[in-house]
Each structure stands twice: as C-alpha cells, then as structure tokens.
Recover the amino acids of this structure.
C-alpha cells in the first residue's frame, strides 16, 4: 500500500512504512546520514538527518520517521539548516582535524557534509579530548578512536549482519570508544566491511594504510573470482598497483553489498615479486627461461608428435575453474578440434559444480524457511553466501541445518516447510544425490553447489567435461576425466598433459599419487602465476595473468553471468590463458572462433543450465573407482591453482577447525 | 660647396659628441650589470624559486606525505607516496610520512600552490633558481635533493639559517655557498615579511 | 496549605518495614480487596478518574499510559522505576526504605490494573540499604501470601522481581531502564516503538515511578473522588516534594498540588536569616529556575510549565544570594555530561563542550564569546536528542544565564589578558 506525501514540494508516493530518508532518495533529495545505513536500518544516533515536517513542533530525524499520508516534509530551509549545522559543529568539537593523513580524507562523509552543511568557523577554544590513535583492533583493521563519531554502524554490522557480536561501545558520554567486547583481536570472515561502513576514518584497513589518497585511484568494476559467489567489486589501482577492493553497495543480487576478507584483502599477490614472468622449460634437471615463441613451438610439437605416435588419447587438458568462460570455451574448442577428448576441469576433490534442476538465485535463500548444508561448511567455501544464509536465519527466521545424513536433515526441518534451500559442496556424488532425493518432495526447492573454484560452473557450461561440450551438449567422443588422466599417466600412456590454473598435487584427493604420476608424463605444461607444487613438476611452465588482469566473463554458483574486467596491468612477459591458446592454435594450425562468436550473449546461451540432471548425476562420476578415504579437507583459503595468498596476510587465518594457516600455502 | 660640406661635417661632429656624451655619461652612472654568478641580484620578497622540504628543530621531516601539494599542483608536477612511521624509526612526528616525494621541476610553473596547500609548512619555495643541467631526468628532484640537510640548519626558515640558503641542496650541501649573506638575500622569504609585520603590530 | 501526610503517614512514627505493623495500619487490605472484589478494569478506572499523573518527571496521566497497552497481547510487564537519580530528588529512596510494603502494595495494584503477572522493580545501584529493606519486605509479603501463585484463591498469579541497577542516571529513562533490565548497555531506545507496544523483552510494558504506584493504595482506599478533590484543575492529588538547598529544614514534605512555591519554602523552614532568595529550581536538575516574582504561583504541573519550568520529580532546590551560579551551572552540566550515555551526538558532544567551557569560567578563565556560546549551544542541542537527557541540559543553564549574566561575564578575561588554552 502506498502513501502520498510531499518532499520539498515534490509529490512522492512510496510504500507505507518507508523511512523518509529512503523516500527522499526517490526525488533525488539528499538527506545526510551517519548512523543510518540502508542495510543496517535506523539507529537515531547521529541526529544529522533532520527534516522539518509540517505540524511537528520539533525537527524530526528522517531515518526513523515513516512516511505517512499527507505528510509535508522539507529537507531544506533555515530551521533544518540550523539544526544540521549545530550537529556538524558538535561532531567536530572533538574530531581531530588530521584529514591530511587520514585514509578516509577525500571520501569522508564528515568532510563532505561539513563542507555542505556546517558553519565555516567554530567557537571551540578548548583542546580536543585525547583518545587512543592507531589502535590495533585485529589482523585487518586499525582503529582511530579520536575520529570516531559513535554512529555504531560497525557495532550494528557485527550484531545484525555478521552475527559475530565482537564489537561494542565501551565507556560512556564523550569518552566512549569502540572496542571488542573481550579485548581480544577483532577477527572473523567479514571484518573489512566495517571500514567501508565507517563514515569517517576511524576504522581503516591495514593493507591500505597510507597507500594512497582516494582521488589518485583508478577504479574498475569487476567480479571477484576467489570463490564461486562472484561478488561485484571495485578494484582501485594507483600507479599500476592494486591497492584495495571495495564492495558495490547496490549489488543486492549477488553480494548484498558485502565482501569477505578473502575477497577484499587477498589481492597482494598480483604485485608479488615471486610471480612468474617468463616461460620456463625444463632442461636436464632444472628450469631455463625461454621466449614465448620457443614455448609455443615446443608445446605444439609435443602435441603433434604425441598424436602422431600414440593417438589423441595420449593428450589431455585440465583446467577451467579459474579461467574465464571465454578461455574455458577456447580451451575445449582447440583440443576437441584436434581430436582430443581428455578434457576436465575437476582437478581437485569436487566432482560437480552445476546444480542442474532446481538451481536457485542467490536471493532465493532469503525466502527459504530452512537452509540445509550438505557436506563441508560454506563459511569458507563461499563466505558471502554464508552471510546470506545468516541473513535468512536472523531476519527471515529460517532454520539452518548442518546434517551428516539426509534423514537427520529432514528431521531438523521445521514442520510444514515448503521453501527449502539445499547447499552442497559437490564432492561426494552419492551424498549429494541422497540429499536431493530426500528433499525432492519440497514444493519450492532451490539448490546450490558451493564450488571452491570461482568459475567451476562456467567451466562445466563451456564444455570442460569429458562427456559434454558447450551448453552441456553430449560430446562426440567421451574422454577420460582428470583422475582417469592421472591413472593413464601412471600407466605411461599419457604423453602430453596441459594444465591451466590447477594444482592437483596440492588439491587432488591423492596429491602424492598425482605428483608421482606427473613424473611419468613426458611433457607437462602448466599455466600459472606462481611456481606451485604442480608447476614445479612441469616440463613447460607458462606465466599467466590473474583475474584482475584480463577481461571476460565468469559464471557464479547461481548461474549469473558476470563480467571480469581488467583493472591492473599484468607484468611484462605475462600472457592470459586465452593468448596462450591463441599461440598454441597457430602452432597446431587450428582456426579459433572469432571474438564476436564468443560474446556474452553466446556465452550466456551456452551457460543456461539444463533441467535433465540434478545433484550427483551419474555422468559426473569418476572414471577411477577408488577415491582414497579420510582425505583432509583442502585449505580453501589457499584455493590452489592460479591463486596464491599474499604472505603478509598470514594472520588472516580464520579460527575454524577446517582451515590451515594461509602462510603455509606454496 | 666645400664650405657647406664642412659645415655639414661639423654638424655631424656635434652629433657624434652628443652621442658620445650619452656613452660617457653612462660611464659615471651606477652600472646595472651584475657580476653573476659571483654577485646575485636581490630578489623580490616573494620570489618563487626551487622547492625545499623543511625539517623541525629536532631534525624530523615536516612532510607528512598527505599529497595535498600534489593534488593542488596545477601542473601535475608533484608525486607523493605516503607510508607509516615505524615506532622505532620515526621520520616525521605523526603517523604518516612521505616515503617518496618527487617534483618534476620542468613541469613546475612555480605558482606556489603547493606551499599554500601544505598543512605543515613542509614544502616552501626558496629564491634559488639555478637548476640548469644537461639531462631532463636530473630535473626530477627527489627527497634527497629537496630535503634541507640537517647540517644546513633545521627548524629555521631558509633565510634564517646561519649559512643562508645552501647553494645546492642535498648533494653539494658541503660546498661553500656562492651567496654572500651580507649582500645577497636580505628579505627573500615571506616569513621575514610576516615577522616584520608582526613586530610592527606589536609595537603599535 | 500545610503538610498532608498520605504516603508519608507513619514514617518516623511506626516501623513500617515490619509487615505486621503495616498490616495493623490497614496494609494490604486494598490489595486483598482488589483481587477478591474488583476487576482489573476497576483499578484502571480508579486510576483514570483520580487524575493521577506520573510522579517521576514527565507527569503523564497514569490511567492513559496503561490504556495504551494493546489488548491482543496478553503477556505484558509492569516495571517500577526506582532509579531515582535526578539531582535534588530523594523521595523514592525514602519510600522504599521507610515504607517498602506500601510501595510493594502499589506495585501489586498496578500489576493487577494492567493484568500483568510479572512485575519488576529497578532500584538504583547506590540504594543498597533500600534494596535490602525492599527485598526483605518482598520476602515477608511472599510468605504472607500477597505475592505468588493463586493469590487469595482467585487464580491470579503475580511475581515480583527486584533488580539493582549499577548507578547510571540514564537508566532512569524508561527505555534505558528496560535495556539495563534486559542486561544490555543502558542506552535509551529509539522511539517508536514505545514501551507500551514493545518494551521489556519485546513485550508491552508499563514503566511507572515508585510514588505514582504508591498513590494507588490510598486511591483505592479512599476513592478516586477523594484524590481528585485535592489539587488544581488538571493536577490532582498530593506530591512529595524533596526540598533542598538554602532552607533551614530541607527534607521530604508531602503537600497537595497547588500549594504555592512560597508556602513550600516556608514549610521547609524558610531561608537562613539575613539571606535573600535568588532562584528556585522546582523540578530537579532538568528544570529551569523560577525567580522571586513567580513565588506565588501554585506548585502544579501547569503553572510550573507556564513559568517556563516544570514540576518534574518534585525536587525543589532553593538558591539564596550566597549562590555562585557559574559553579551551580557547571556542577549540573558536569553531571549531565558525565551521565550522557554517548549514543547521540548533541548530548555527547554538546554536554561535554558546555562542561569544559563552564569549567574554564569557574576558574575565571573565560574568553569573550563564551557567554554567547553557552546560550547558543545549549539552545542548539535542545530538541535534537534521542532521549530527554540532552534536552535537560539547557533549562537551568539558560534560566541562570539570562537572569544573572553579570556572574558569567565577570569570569571572562579582559581583552588584554592572554587567552589560556
């Protein structure tokens, strides 16, 4: 039901119960706010959002006044301006004017509103209160108590979004400070969001501390590919260095405006001095640096010779989960064109990434009455998805069920639940099938596979599966899957294995066996950013571009096609996987599809998930029957493959039993 | 005919004498030529010359790496990259200092906006103008060349230092200055003017 | 009009802390009568008809407050506010320490009136003695069968919980009290929703002052008409006035509303000999001063409001001509700045700023413009706050600033002297 009111003389019609501050946005009237936030709701603390409502004796706060029928609201005028100027003057009484060294300076709400609404001078002659500065709040955050305006956005984020309840306000009056309740370091998966919520420079990121001023940054919107959620991100670059990533506030469909600490802070590796910048070729026992032309010639000759000598089953390619859709498509196109069917993206433990039938949108989770997590916890596999699950639980009252067996999960379901979300890790096919079968009767079931690799679903859609081509169409010839290829390698029947952004030695169920198998393959090509365990066993190592260095699309776990845009320039001598495949195609004399054939609409068409399979479809089953039992879960924060963590972020380790220190990677 | 020629020539002599009188007249006037570089002209009080980064009395740098000079610069001549002061190895008094500070003097238009923007009076324009060099690259002045050397006098404004303004900051600071303090810059820094004004106000 | 002892009857004469003494004097008879004979609606009617208004400060009609409770929510709470922290007020402590059974009976009657089955009393942390006495009285009453399940065989259950605060002024604000009672940080809540809709533990809640609830006992005994017959047109009944300051016999005096301010001063023994009256603060630290020309005003809600002040909690502070109003203002503003919870900007920053300026003035180090700043800022923060605490800073300060400007201006340094910072 809508109500009609007037804001600054403009008639507005908004749903009943809309806060005035939101109603004013519909007529492009800015009402300044500090404590109010669209996702956190009103708190009524900063008192800066004052408006004049006809018939009310006092100025009212727009953040906690619902729009009512016939209301006449003025957001300007002498009374409002005097009130706002008073509040801003008060906020500045004890706020240190260290804007020149403040990381927020230039994008600070207090600066902006002080310029727009405050008096130019002040009557304050007394010294400002002193509070602790540069407080080490936790592994990611620095807190400046003096700059704090006590809007409590951070505290409320911790309470109602992250549900961690670590931050509190301590002491009272003008001496109140923000601190963790127990005094222990502030750490969880989403701490970085408070730096964006903070309207002033009180909470700042350690990784961005004093690195730049905001006006010097070049901003590119792109998609985070560190997990399969696909959060939209702003990448801020200065002098060619990626300095920070910021969330996209109106990204309601994917990230809900939040980022996890992995997506936000694990960006230092782009500028790592350890990065590979030249192709490496193994001569004798050690690597020698060679040029790209030689690398392509060696690679092409190895493939041609192997096909001539032993036929196409002796050639294989693994990768796709960390490539763009375009690259994954070209990868399988090129190899299928020369008759190779041994294609797979599943280098690790995961078997399936496409939910198939009943695949839901991320926003469907908020509507669910119960959310069933089958398999590994998603807190680290897909942190922002977990945040949405928490939102469903905290605001929608949904029941979150972690159950070992489908029977337990069904028992834990609230009575009469008709809307259920089922999240599976894609590892154990039988388990996935059992859960899907158990909930098959639910009226509105939405299913998700929380993949480890960012574009796992895209790789499947683009045809990086031994049994399917692009768009899940059945392949002409069925090849061996990754495990099968490693088995062939052990038997000595695999001659050339090309791997793109994968690290099976680390992430496969039996990494040691993979390492032994790789030794028996005459020619192993690995495209990587760093010399990983797998790359270290390769014949030819190709330096690759990272996701922020190339352009393309990616497919997240809910099937949304998202753009990946180049934000930062790659080091000299580094090629993207697409460029490498172009070079190989020239050697193999294959014409690759033209750019327009690869555009987003075509990719989207191919990405459309079919309805003829569900969790644990038999086609995803492995060629190799024996999968070792009791495999410890992989270190998800390390991800494996193309990504490596910034060693300076070793302290970012999250205290859950399943994780290992990030610094232990590589 | 001859007499007229003589008359004419006599007339010319007069003109020559008149002309020479101007020439000789100048011989006895004060000479405008200055024996540069051994003598230097006194500058206007607010002359905008080469930059200098100042220090506090304890030797710490005034610059806090805030980049306001760089954003105020209309010629995009200044590059600053900030960094955090390590607790044990303090560069500037606050939390932040300039890890890199570079001015491209070829781009600089000597407008003094950097000086205006500076919240700590760290960057100042001195009256130095001799920057000639053979390579373009040498006109990018980094912190080593912009920072006033500690032995040149810290804390004081350029004109208040005992040794005056060093001939070349940084690299050749130990070379004796070519500037004669007594004859040279007498009131070349605006601080001097302000001080005079203040003194005047105080006496009133 | 002389002192009329209603609630204070017997205090100092009999040991009212003893349940037997209290019962001999007619105690708990009204409670028994209410449960046995009256319907809850009757109690509410009596409260409404008597014209009883909140004695805690705001003066809101009690019956009306109770009627806001939504009928569709049967689970509701009554909270008795004994976090008496208003500067100058000391009546509630006297009541719970000297007449605990009277207060308890009032709480029981109020609970019955709103049909709640669990009442709370929130006692200020500093009132240790009062807390002990009240807890002992509650135990006695429970043993005697006045509190508990199936009272007097009627099937009506009522439990009373005593909770001690930790000594914060802000916990006297009703939503701050509710937060504190729930174990949260004592910060006022954003309104709406009001406590009558969403209060303690999210349930409809009525918060009443100790004195308000205690008056229910005589109202039930003598009838609403008896109570309404006293007082002025819209301020009915009696009020305990806590007189303090420059009078000869400070203390609690129970008078009918409408007694003039001058009479109250006289009741408290008048001024010290040879002194002249400068100002009277009639309603606690949050109220503005009234001055000599207003002494003949009747002491009731309307006339105090008309005089630019308020009746508040009945803390009646008298200032004679020995008062340094700069010190007095500093003392009060320091109190409010210290007690500010720090949630909202005007109260947190404004109070602290005013306190520091006044502190400078107290030490004779004012600068020109301080006087104007005090007026401008104290007026500026008023009306912008989340709760009433921030709005309480201005009244006293403004009234003395305007009345005694010379006292403040005398503390400002001459232009020649340097500005101390």
């Amino acid at each position: 039901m809508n109500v009609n009111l007037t804001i600054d003389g403009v008639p507005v019609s908004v749903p009943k119960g809309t806060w005035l501050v939101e109603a004013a946005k519909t007529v492009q009237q800015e009402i300044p706010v500090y404590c109010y936030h669209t996702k956190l709701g009103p708190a009524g603390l900063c008192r800066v959002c004052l408006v004049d409502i006809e018939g009310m004796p006092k100025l009212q706060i727009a953040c906690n006044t619902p729009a009512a029928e016939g209301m006449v609201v003025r957001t300007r005028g002498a009374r409002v301006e005097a009130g706002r100027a008073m509040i801003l003057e008060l906020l500045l009484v004890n706020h240190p004017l260290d804007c020149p060294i403040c990381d927020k300076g230039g994008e600070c709400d207090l600066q902006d509103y002080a310029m727009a609404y405050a008096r130019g001078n002040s009557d304050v002659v007394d010294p400002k209160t002193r509070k602790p500065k540069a407080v080490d709040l936790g592994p990611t955050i620095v807190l400046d108590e003096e700059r704090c305006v006590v809007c409590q956005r951070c505290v409320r984020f911790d309470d109602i979004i992250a549900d961690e309840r670590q931050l509190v306000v301590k002491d009272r009056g003008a001496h109140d400070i923000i601190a963790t309740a127990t005094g222990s370091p502030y750490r969880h998966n989403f701490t970085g969001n408070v730096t964006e919520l903070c309207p002033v420079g009180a909470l700042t990121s350690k990784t961005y501390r004093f690195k730049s001023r905001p006006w010097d940054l070049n901003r590119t919107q792109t998609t985070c590919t560190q997990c399969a959620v696909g959060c939209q991100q702003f990448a801020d670059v200065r002098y060619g260095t990626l300095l920070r990533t910021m969330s996209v506030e109106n990204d309601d469909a994917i990230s809900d405006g939040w980022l996890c600490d992995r997506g936000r802070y694990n960006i230092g590796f782009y500028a790592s001095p350890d990065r590979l910048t030249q192709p490496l070729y193994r001569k004798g026992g050690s690597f020698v640096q060679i040029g790209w032309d030689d690398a392509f010639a060696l690679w092409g000759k190895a493939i041609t010779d192997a096909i001539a000598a032993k036929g196409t089953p002796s050639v294989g390619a693994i990768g796709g989960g960390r490539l763009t859709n375009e690259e994954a498509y070209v990868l399988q196109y090129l190899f299928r064109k020369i008759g190779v069917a041994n294609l797979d993206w599943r280098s690790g433990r995961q078997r399936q990434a496409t939910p198939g039938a009943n695949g839901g949108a991320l926003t469907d989770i908020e509507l669910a009455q119960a959310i069933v997590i089958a398999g590994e916890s998603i807190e680290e596999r897909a942190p922002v998805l977990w945040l949405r699950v928490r939102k469903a639980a905290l605001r929608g009252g949904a029941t979150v069920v972690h159950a070992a067996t489908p029977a337990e999960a069904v028992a834990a379901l609230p009575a009469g639940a008709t809307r259920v979300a089922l999240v599976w890790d894609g590892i154990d096919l039988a388990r996935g099938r059992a859960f899907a079968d158990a909930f098959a009767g639910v009226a509105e079931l939405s299913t998700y596979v929380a993949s480890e690799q960012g574009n796992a679903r895209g790789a499947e859609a683009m045809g990086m599966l031994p049994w399917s081509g692009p768009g899940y169409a059945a392949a002409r010839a069925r090849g061996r899957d990754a495990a099968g290829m490693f088995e062939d390698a052990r038997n000595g029947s695999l001659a050339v294995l090309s791997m793109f952004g994968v690290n099976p030695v680390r992430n496969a169920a039996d990494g040691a066996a993979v390492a032994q198998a790789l030794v028996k393959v005459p020619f192993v090509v690995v495209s990587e950013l760093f010399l990983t365990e797998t790359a270290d066993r390769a014949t030819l190592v190709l330096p690759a571009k990272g996701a922020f260095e190339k352009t393309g699309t990616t497919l997240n776990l809910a099937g949304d096609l998202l753009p990946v845009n180049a934000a930062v320039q790659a080091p000299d001598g580094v090629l993207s996987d697409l460029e490498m495949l172009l070079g190989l195609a020239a050697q193999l004399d294959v014409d690759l599809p033209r750019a327009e054939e690869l555009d987003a609409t075509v990719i989207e068409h191919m990405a459309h998930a079919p309805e003829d399979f569900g969790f644990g479809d038999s086609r995803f089953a492995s060629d190799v029957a024996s999968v070792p039992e009791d495999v410890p879960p992989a270190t998800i924060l390390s991800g494996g493959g193309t990504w490596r963590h910034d060693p300076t972020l070793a302290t970012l380790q999250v205290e859950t039993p399943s994780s290992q220190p990030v610094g232990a990677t590589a | 005919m001859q007499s007229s020629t003589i008359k004419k020539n006599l007339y010319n002599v007069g003109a020559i004498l008149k002309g020479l009188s101007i020439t000789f007249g100048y011989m006895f006037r004060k000479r405008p030529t200055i024996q540069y570089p051994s003598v230097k002209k006194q500058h206007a009080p607010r002359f905008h010359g080469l930059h200098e980064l100042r220090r506090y009395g304890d030797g710490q740098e005034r610059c806090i790496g805030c980049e306001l000079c760089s954003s105020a610069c209309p010629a995009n001549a200044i590059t600053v990259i900030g960094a955090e002061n390590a607790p044990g190895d303090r560069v500037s008094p606050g939390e932040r200092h300039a890890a890199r500070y570079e001015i491209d003097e070829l781009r600089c238009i000597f407008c003094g906006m950097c000086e205006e923007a500076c919240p700590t009076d760290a960057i100042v324009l001195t009256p130095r103008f001799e920057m000639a060099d053979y390579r373009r690259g040498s006109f990018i002045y980094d912190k080593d060349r912009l920072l006033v050397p500690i032995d040149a006098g810290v804390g004081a404004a350029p004109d208040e230092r005992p040794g005056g303004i060093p001939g070349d900051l940084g690299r050749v600071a130990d070379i004796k200055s070519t500037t004669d303090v007594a004859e040279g810059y007498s009131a070349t820094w605006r601080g001097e003017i302000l001080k005079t004004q203040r003194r005047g106000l105080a006496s009133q | 009009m002389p002192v009329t002892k209603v609630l204070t009857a017997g205090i100092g004469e009999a040991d009212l802390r003893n349940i037997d003494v209290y019962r001999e004097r007619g105690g708990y008879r009204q409670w028994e009568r209410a449960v046995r004979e009256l319907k809850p609606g009757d109690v509410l009617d009596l409260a409404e008809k008597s014209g009883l208004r909140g004695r805690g400060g705001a003066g809101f009609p009690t019956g009306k407050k109770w009627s806001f409770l939504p009928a569709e929510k049967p689970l509701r709470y009554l909270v008795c506010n004994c976090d008496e922290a208003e500067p100058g007020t000391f009546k509630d402590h006297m009541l719970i320490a000297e007449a605990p059974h009277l207060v308890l009976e009032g709480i029981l009657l109020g609970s019955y009136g709103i049909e709640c089955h669990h009442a709370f009393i929130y006692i200020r942390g500093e009132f240790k003695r009062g807390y002990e006495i009240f807890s002992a009285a509650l135990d006695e009453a429970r043993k005697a069968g006045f509190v508990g399940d199936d009272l007097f065989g009627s099937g009506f259950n009522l439990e009373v919980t005593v909770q001690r605060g930790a000594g914060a002024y802000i916990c006297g604000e009703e939503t701050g009290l509710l937060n504190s009672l729930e174990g949260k940080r004592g910060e006022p809540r954003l309104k709406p929703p009001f406590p009558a809709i969403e209060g303690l533990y999210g349930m409809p809640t009525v918060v009443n002052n100790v004195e308000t609830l205690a008056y229910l006992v005589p109202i039930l005994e003598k009838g609403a008409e008896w109570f309404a017959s006293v007082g002025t047109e819209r301020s009915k009944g009696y009020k305990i006035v806590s007189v303090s300051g420059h009078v000869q016999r400070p203390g609690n005096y129970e008078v009918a509303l409408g007694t003039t301010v001058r009479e109250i001063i006289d009741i408290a023994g008048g001024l010290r000999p040879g002194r002249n009256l400068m100002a009277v603060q009639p309603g606690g630290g949050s109220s503005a001063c009234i001055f000599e020309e207003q002494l003949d005003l009747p002491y009731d809600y309307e006339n105090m409001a008309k005089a630019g002040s308020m009746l508040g909690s009945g803390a009646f502070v008298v200032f004679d001509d020995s008062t340094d109003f700069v010190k007095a203002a500093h003392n009060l503003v320091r109190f409010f700045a210290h007690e500010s919870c720090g949630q909202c900007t005007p109260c947190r920053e404004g109070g602290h700023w005013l306190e520091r300026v006044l502190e400078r003035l107290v030490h004779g180090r004012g600068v020109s413009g301080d006087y104007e700043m005090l007026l401008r800022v104290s007026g500026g923060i008023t009306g912008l706050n989340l709760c009433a605490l921030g709005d309480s800073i201005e009244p006293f300060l403004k009234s003395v600033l305007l009345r005694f400007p010379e006292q403040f201006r005398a503390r400002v340094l001459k232009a020649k002297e340097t500005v101390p910072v």
